[in-house]
Amino acid sequence: MKMQSRAEKTVFSCALEGDAEGLQYLIDEESPDMLRETDDVGRSVLAAACMLDRSGFARELVVKHRADVNAHTARGYSPLHCSAMWGQLDTLKTLLELGADPQAVTFRSERAIDLARRYSRWDCVDYLAWAEAKQSLQASINEVRDILAAPERVQGKLSKEDKNICLNTCSAKSDWIQNVKNPTIQDLEEQKKQLEDVLSPILAKLKAQGEFVIIRRTTFDGSGAC
């Protein structure tokens, strides 16, 4: 990897070695702005660490040094894209845990899962498909809660019973996400279908009165297609 300056080379050397203590020393001695340095194709220190599967170092960068987990190059490549391309599953999991966006796209409109498929990183494909299914369920829950939190959208359109059904169903699905260990993609899809089956007739009342509401039906498969 070609470096552009002595400071950048030192920072990237820390990423290469997974040297969190060395990075902290450099930040203390010089400047936190060093973390904004990029290599000759615009990749950040975090992206470099992810390509090398330095998951602990990546976590340190995001949690302690507030590196942007969704920072991207001019062509749209984020740390998650880099992990997926290089097949670095542990770091990919860490990034998703820390809030990386699996829907972010490159200049070719490719998500991380698309790149993992292109480079035959099948373990990453499977995990990203699972993560997208989980994200889709959570997004549907959040969408309904946002609607109910806006009085102007529901007042006079939904009954108290309707609102309680929506809130209780969302709470039950949130609890399920929090408490069920290692759900499969099929489990997540089934939970979303149950959510839709209960709430769609109620939310249809809003649509009938001019409120535009969509709960997306999405199916994920092990190939990463959706």
UniProtKB/TrEMBL annotation:
Keywords: ANK repeat. Pfam families: Ank_2. ANK repeats lie at residues 75-107. GO terms for biological process: cell population proliferation. Signal peptide: none annotated. This is Ankyrin repeat domain 45. It comes from Electrophorus electricus. The lineage of its organism: Eukaryota, Metazoa, Chordata, Craniata, Vertebrata.
